[in-house]
Amino acid sequence: LPCVGLYLKIFRWINHGHCEMPHIILGCLFLYNTGDSCEFGSMKYYALCGFGGILSCGITHTAVVPLDLVKCRLQVDPAKYKSIFTGFSVTIKEDGVRGLAKGWAPTFIGYSMQGLCKFGFYEVFKILYSDMLGEENTYMWRTSLYLAASASAEFFADIALAPMEACKVRIQTQPGYANTLRECAPKMYAEEGLWAFYKGVVPLWMRQIPYTMMKFACFERTVELLYKYVVPKPRSECSKPEQLLVTFVAGYIAGVFCAIVSHPADSVVSVLNKEKGSTAAQVLKRLGPMGVWKGLVARIIMIGTLTALQWFIYDSVKVYFRLPRPPPPEMPESLKKKLGLSE
To answer: What is the mean pLDDT of residues 135-150?
Structure first.
């Protein structure tokens, strides 16, 4: 994919001309240096978390463009694309194998920018809200903290994503409209102005904010539960490969719930970006309670795998750059004393 070349250039720049992209994931599996490269909550920490978000979202979303294309066409034209398999066969018959890659450029750019804001701002808001609550309240209300921090981060992430998402859907669902981002963006601007790129931002918030809240809160709590009830030893005693395996499993579990929670809004976004002059309310009314669930199976497969890989890549980047990775939260001693749980 063309996006791989861009990532290789980024890594060459970071590593002073030496590209280590092919070895980053493998390298982090065997990196046992326990020293942190920066302070938790520092600007360098936030910047590298944002970079991890770029890699995790940009790579994964671009990799599943063919499945995303078929899913979008199932949503906007269910009469023609009756199932995942017919969707693939019709697309290949009409556009060839290369047709399955339609929309890769706006996907790569849009979701890289979204990943930067989503993961970077999540770390910012999580620490900010934690400092506001204090140690005891942070532990007792940690799920609410994850939900609030992820919702805040996604609000800004979707503003960055909206223009490219609009182009992607237009390219994928309107055959003949445009084949490339360079064709699509100027054409959309000429026809509808700047509004063409942001008319889907509200339904995008409707889709992505619940999705991200579920993604982060479910992941954080699943990791906590896995280490508490499934993994037979504390995280500090687990090797890096074992920790990343837990990350992948927790990410997949979170991804399944994400797909279900956000799918109705995803259907609305797909139809809205295809049609001119429609509103979210009009599309929702026309689709009805059954129509909004079209393409759910494809999306569960896509989002489950996507979310697991995103968390795996993100955590791998943290390990590779030796970022601080606090263990799952434990009840503070002061709270144990208040509840009479300490000796």
So the answer is: 95
